[in-house]
Structures are given as C-alpha cells and as structure tokens.
Amino acid sequence: MIKGDCDSKFLPVKEIFSNALESGFETGAAIAIEHKGKLVVNLWGGHQDANRTKEWEEDTLVNVFSVTKGVTAICAARLIDEGKLDPNQLVSYYWPEYNCNGKGKTKVSDFLCHRAGMFGFKGGIPSGSFQDWDMFVSHLESQSPYREPGSSQGYHALTYGWLVGEIIKRIDGRSVGQYFKDEIAQPLGIDFYIGLPRENFSRCADMIMMEQDSIKLPGGFLKYIPDFFLSKRIKNFKEALMCGDFEAAFEFRDEDSENFQNSEDWRIAEIPSANGHGTAKSLAKLYGILSNDCSRNGIAIMSKDTLERAITPHSSGPDSVLFGAGIKFGLGFELAQGISSLGNISPILNDKMFGHAGIGGAVAFGDPEQNFGYGFICNQQHKPREMYKTNNQLTKALYSII
Q1: How far apart are CA 203 and CA 30, in angstroms?
Q2: Could you give the CA distance from residue 82 to residue 86 in angstroms, rounded to a whole number?
Q3: How far apart are CA 65 and CA 253, in angstroms?
Q4: In terms of residue numbers, what domain contains 391?
Q5: Does position 206 have pLDDT exceeding 90, yes or no?
Q6: Helix or strand or coil: residue 328?
Q7: How many degrees, rounded to 5, is the angle at CA 259 between CA 257 and CA 261?
Q8: Residue 6: left if φ>0, alpha if ψ -120 to 50, beta else—which one?
Q9: Within a 10 A sphere around the Cβ of 286, how many other Cβ atoms?
Q10: Among 73, 208, 244, 277, which one is least packed by beta carbons within 10 Å?
C-alpha cells in the first residue's frame, strides 16, 4: 500500500505513515522530508477518491487549505527582502482605497499577523464565482472591521488571502499565484499552485470533507461558570467561544454544495489563504530550501536575515477566532506549538518550526536549526480533535530520531 523511499534512519516515520493508511484512518496521503538538502523520506499511498478506486501517486496533488498561507507568506517575505514591502507601513500606503470605515490605521503586519480585525465578511461571504478576485477584495475594502485594527488577534481563515494578496498585487502587479509561479515555483521546480491549471486536474485528489453539521464547538458549558473560577487560559477560551468570531471566520455559503472544494471553480480560483494545491515533496523542498540558507543551485528565495525576521513571533494571542489560544504568528507563518495545548486540533510544532497547517489535515514547515523541510498532505478531513492526529504522530517520531 505504501510506495516510495525512506532512509533507514527514519523508518519509525514510515511505520506510522503506513499504519495511518492501512488502518483506514487516512484515505490517501503523502509525506516528504528533506534534511540538510537531501530528500530522506518520500512516501505515498492510499487512494485519491472516497470510493478508493484511484491510487495515490507520487505526483498526486491535493488542496492543502491554509498551508497556502505559509506559501503566500513566503511571497510577502521575498518582497520585504527586495525592499518593496514594509510590514510596518500602513496598508493605505499601498492600497489607498482601504483607508475607510475605521481601517486607516491598519498596518501591513496586521494583515500578516491576523490582527487587522477583518477575519470575516460582514453580511456574509459574497455570492458568485471564487474566481472573481475584485468582488471579494471590494467587499473587504469597503467594510468596517470587527475589531479595532492592531488591538487583538483573530485568525483570518479566508480573508487573509485576499487582504495579503491584494497588497502583493498592488506592489508587483501580478497575482499571488502568478508571482509564486514566476519567482519561486518554476525557477526551483516546486510543484505547487495557487490557482490550479486545468491540465493538472487529472492528477488532483478529491478532498473528502466531514459534514458541516458535525462540527461542534467544544466547551459550551463554560458560559455557565463564573470567570473567577477559571484560569486565565480557560477564561480566554470562554470569551472567544462566546464572542462568535469563529463562526464569522469559518462561515460557509448556502450556495456551495458539499465538497465544493473539489469543484472546477474552487480549484481554478486564486485564494492565497485556502486553495493551494501541491505535493508533499514540493512542500518539503520549498521549506527545505528556506531551512538551508534560503537558496539552492544559486537561486535565492530571500536572505537569511529576512527569513529570521519573518519567523520571529509578532503576535501571540489570545486569538479570538481560535478559541482564545496563545497561537504565535510571525509575518504570515504559524510558529511553535500553535493551539495544540487545547487538544489535538492543531499540529504540534517545536520552537524553531515555521510553516502552516491546513484544516484538511495537511501540514508543511521548516526548521532552520535542524535543517528540515517537511510536507504532509492527505485528503480525508477528520473531526477537530483528530484533524492532525497523523501529522502529530509523524512529527513526534521525526524529532525523537533527531
């Protein structure tokens, strides 16, 4: 059931990966790990579809959801490195029309660190094609924020893509997907796309999403417990649960069918927060390059100093969308242990790990101290408490080896 190669040193990783597929917990998946520039793990197995009729191949692509945010952050960091983007500058410097309805003091870093107070669409996600970039941008441009910009952290699950993406477009002229393709993917051979070309549909696995009605928020009983009985962490959790920010950030449209993430419209659109498609090998390579001097074969993505700035914590919660957790963000990257302290609803990350997780269970990260590049992708979305079960077992095994 498992194909590919694995250095003998990393056989415990292979065993966990194999068990996840052979037990039926994962439908299809792939894992790749680069260590010091060498591909030491490249495994894949299972199936691309719910009926288990089409085998997963080495070059199978899948939607990795918010793992895309990390790739978008890399594009932003490259512009910072080139002196074209200043994260401390006001958004209105690059995007004048954004300066309305209480958003004038928003800084670029507020977009990147989920502190813009724009984690949802007021009045609902706009109706229509996901390919209509200007429609989504215009809606966000004109609305007022949910919170005063810069005053608090609230995970911008979908809106991050259009907000950061429009800044990149205003500076460079290209969309995020085109910028990444031209500047990083093609020069370095990275098989990852923000906006999937139709010619790659044939090698794209279907996402098997859990039913929306099965998503139940934990801890509802907390609203009946007075705050003075609660620790600071649980109090933050309660406040986040009661404020409704999670629902605003993770809203669904009534017009979208179940598993709309497999539709042509979603795949072709450029949503730099949520619809990147790629292979585990490509993600391991991308983060492997960043974790080994940020360059390969004479091609540099950015300077080491810029990367260090981008992966330094700039915000650490409490996050009003992600249940009041102290999740740390660099300039667009998820850092350290995320929200795993609240249960198995986030990937386990060590202190120097930077990257991002996706709500489908995929995770990609780099570690410049250990010189790792890591990519895990899958197509079976699990309920929140098991969402990162396979990944957490894999990363725990990986770091026990090193």
Answers
A1: 14
A2: 10
A3: 17
A4: 2-401
A5: yes
A6: strand
A7: 105
A8: beta
A9: 28
A10: 244
The more confident residue out of 297 and 326 is 297
Stated as kind and residue range, the H or E segment containing 3 is strand 2-6
DSSP string, 333-395: -EETTTTGGGSSSS----TT-EEEE-TTS-EEEEETTTTEEEEEEESB---GGGTTHHHHHHH
pLDDT, tens only, 256-287 = 988 899 999 999 999 999 999 999 999 999 99
Strands 328-329 and 28-35, by their bridges, are unpaired
> How many residues are given for the chain?
402
Res 304 pLDDT > 90:
yes
Q: Which helix (H) or strand (E) holds 42?
A: strand 38-46
The two tokens of residue 43 are 């495994």
Contacts of 377 (CB under 8 A, 6+ apart): 29, 30, 31, 62, 64, 67, 278, 279, 280, 283, 362
CA distance 151 to 128: 32
β-sheet bridge partners, residue 366: 354, 373
pLDDT for the residue numbered 213: 56
Residue 365 forms beta bridges with which residues? 355, 374
CATH of the domain at 223: 3.40.710.10
Query: What tokens appear for 153 in the block?
Result: 């952290």
- Number of domains making up the chain: 1
Residue 224 burial (CB count, 10 A): 6
pTM exceeds 0.90 for this model = yes
Distance CA 396, CA 400 (A): 6
* Residue 229: φ, ψ to 5°: -90, -5
Task: Describe the chain by its helix, strand, coil percentages, rounded to 5.
Answer: 40, 15, 45
